[in-house]
User: Fold these one by one.
Assistant:
Number 1:
Amino acid sequence: MATASKAGTPDFATYADKATVDALIARARELRPFLMAEAPEGEKRRNPTPAVDKMLKDEGFLRMLLPKRLGGFGLSPTDLCRVQIEIAKGDPSISWVVQIVNGTSWITSLAPDGVQDAVFANGPAAVCGAYNPPGKARKVDGGWIINGAWPYTSGSRQSTWAQQGVVLEGYEGPVVPGISMCYIPFSDLTIVDTWYVTGMQGTGSDTSVAKDVFIPDAQMVLMDERAGQIDRTKRHFGAPSDLLPAIPVVRTTGIAQLLGAVEAMLEIVQAEAPKKPVLTTTIMPRTNSGAFMRDLGETAATLQTARLILFDLTAELDAVGYGAELSLEAKARGRGQCAKLIELIHQASESLMFQAGSSAFSLDKPISRYWKDVSMGLRHIQNIPTIGFEIYGRNIAGADPISPPGAY
């Protein structure tokens, strides 16, 4: 049974307290050398190493966003970002896994009671998955038969449940708004080794396959009752995160890890500046170069500006958990601001690689891995700046939208 705070509010009706958050941030910082040491092997395996897998589960980093009523820490969007930034400084691929599992597990906590009863029957559970290209669902007595193959299933080895997008057999329309979500234990899926990519290699984002898998009715969320709708009549309801908008939270918190990774790149370049020359010139060290110092300062200012935008957005999301309204206009603005965040982070990462020089691309240099991971993460479909700017532009001009409001 939930305890009550001093104000009489049940503890599950609040975000995690400062002590809990500070401990998670401190632990993420302490683990940075460990994550950096494990990262090369994880990149080769194209999966988190067994040691990292154990750490993520033992330390609770996979249940930070899950509400306290389900055994999670119940972090706010802001505090999730603060932890994610520190994890990314150790290994961006691991922060990507942490983000995907936290985001998908939390979205599962917004689903109807039947889904929550099934997935969290034995306590907090790690959930990941994909929605596109969707699989197919066929109705049978008592449930559904699911077939499909979902690529990019980040965190597939760390999760026990998959949230997979499906369309009903016979449906031939667009993925949006025709998508439904089914919940399948990973024990009923086959993971196919397909993750051969340039960046984010350590995320285990392989293809998960369902072949004639039966799920009961309670494990299907149809498109007209999709997870994310606010339903105060549910038995499983009452945490601040139950009021948060799914897409803005996942998109915004997902950018934090990219910011953290580029901040780690900045630390590397900054540390080398007093030691290395500006090649092909007489300048030694780089700190004697006005041009180099100018570029370094601009990059640092760019990342600080990105931080200000990020935490302004997450503060707005935090407030929604305590009853503030987030209008459609605010969601469109947030989409545009996230697009600008992506541009700032991209600008900083590219500038740092110019400052670091061609040797930074050596595979044994940590900055090379950060750059590759960031370069790929920036191009996730939720991060494409052109789409974000167009959505915002259309909203402020009153033009016809190009996405349904739920995708803002």
Note: The first strand starts at residue 127 and ends at 140.
Number 2:
Amino acid sequence: MTEKTDVVIIGAGPVGLFAVFELGLLNIKCHLVDNLDKVGGQCAELYPEKPIYDIPSRPVVTGQELTDELIKQINPFKPKFHLNQQVEKIAKTEYGWIVETNIGTKVEAKCIVVAAGAGSFVPRKPPIEHIENFENKNVFYAIRDKSIFKNKKILIAGGGDSALDWTNELSKDSNVTLIHRRKEFRAAPDSVSKMQELETKEKIKFLKGQIKKISKIQDSRIMLEYENDDEKSNIEVDYLLPFFGLKMELGPIAEWGLNLHENLIKVDTEKFETSTPSIFAIGDINWYPGKLKLILSGFHESALMAQEVFKYCFPDKKNIFRYTTSSKELQKKLGV
């Protein structure tokens, strides 16, 4: 089944979210695709508690607070989110474009807006030979359905928030062991305290070391060899969950034939359209002379982009520019 909308926005970070607002004011409907399992992009994933000081009118706001308020701002426009997915293919159609994700979701839209930050977040994989043979079977880099891990034996690798949070959560219904190269963690103090309390109560186990090898054994289980101070040991588990953080890659976007500048998408500064008509790029993923990688720059680009997208979505209509402060029509849309 193919869904239909006016615009597909690739990336649900702050700039992608604000683009929904600017497009919504023009009666343009949006779907958003993001390969993270949450809305907010880098702000929500990498620094939800980190203060940001250069958002207009806000002396200070955290990444998560900014995300929450942008979501509240776009609620009147009812965007549809496709999370935990990466856009892999785009194809031209008579209507505009078909956008297809890695799990088979298909959305047809008149325009595409790339707001993917510096690219897609992808997991940092441990340097274990042949680990790819076990991915999505015994090895998972993200948890989409925690029920599959119930009553299983699990090894979680890592020392950050994701590793500690999932250690604490999955220990409720599973046999969980956490492995990290040292017993010092980068996670929130509360998460660390909970993990240590669970270890004291023998509800989880902790191993100091690094995983070196993975191999298949009977009953669909895997054997993992780990090393600590040159001493090697083995552990048999149902699943390995490596949580070593995320890195950025341009991903399939690099194959779409768009003009690039040092791995960024070239756009004009009038409408932020790419070299391919009806495909736009806003935020950190684009490049033009004088570009500044700031959230507020992306907000400005969103506003100008929306004016041009209107022409593709409503070619027979005239776009009358209105201010939200004085337009009763816009205020009605916003519910104020």
Note: The two ends are 36 Å apart (CA to CA).
Number 3:
Amino acid sequence: MIKDRNVDIKRNAEGKRIVVINDICFKGKRKINWEDVKRYLIGYVGDHYQITETADIIYLGNELPEEYTESESRKALMGATAKAKANAATAIPELIQIAINPKYEENTKSKHDKRAAKGWYRYDVKFALPVYEGETLVRYNIFNARLLVNHAENGKKYLYDILAIKKETSKPQQDVW
């Protein structure tokens, strides 16, 4: 079951949409409890959301929690990037809504013949996480990422993972909105 979420879609200084995650649910840079993240993601299974730019419907299937938390790419994450991926789980509906720049690629791995029979799509997203000193909000760290979506044999598109999470190196935002 998904808890109440404190997530907004805002526009940054360039007018591009960004998902602002106002509450950090998964704390700690050194040790994220990925089992908690997996349990959280299970609450989304069966839901679907629409990408505003393309009107594509993206489904959240049974494979998402496992792939999101157990993939090799996730295991390679450390520090702020791991924390960002864990907390991005709380904003999946909004991340899907703001996804832009779809890039298609054919499936090349036989292990994905059914789940990605019609290929893969990657969409760009941007999100912000608050940084606190004690109880005081001091800034937001901005992250770019890609949604990995498989186009399945049944014709539906399913969110498979969030990849390529990178913190923007420009000056962190004090008050973006």
Note: The chain has a mean pLDDT of 85.
Number 4:
Amino acid sequence: MTFTLQQIDLAAEAVISRLREHPDINVVTFDAPMGAGKTTLIAAICRKLGVETDDISSPTFSIINEYRADATGRQIYHFDCYRLDDINEALDMGVEEYFDSGALCLIEWPDIIAPLLPSRTLTVTLTPQSDTLRELTLK
């Protein structure tokens, strides 16, 4: 599907719908170039799940932000692996424990931790089509 920023909630709902179809998946990676809208889409997903809007921010420096979905109280972890130097940093912070917790894990810049990702991971790809249009692919 293609969408604009004004249609970001439709893209968020597409991701959430896929997760509802596959309740055994709790890890979602976001593959896109810098500035393509990964954090914006993750914020829209979190809002749709009931996270307080003011609580959602990019974890670029903290690496992981934790949110709670209002309706269910479910934990959501938002990872930004851009600043990780190697896979050992991810292991040291216990990334596998987050994945095994059953909490929803939303991961930006996942390449460095790819060997640690569960086999049942949803990959969200955002491909810029223009300055305002993005293509969303789920697999």
Note: The mean pLDDT is 93.
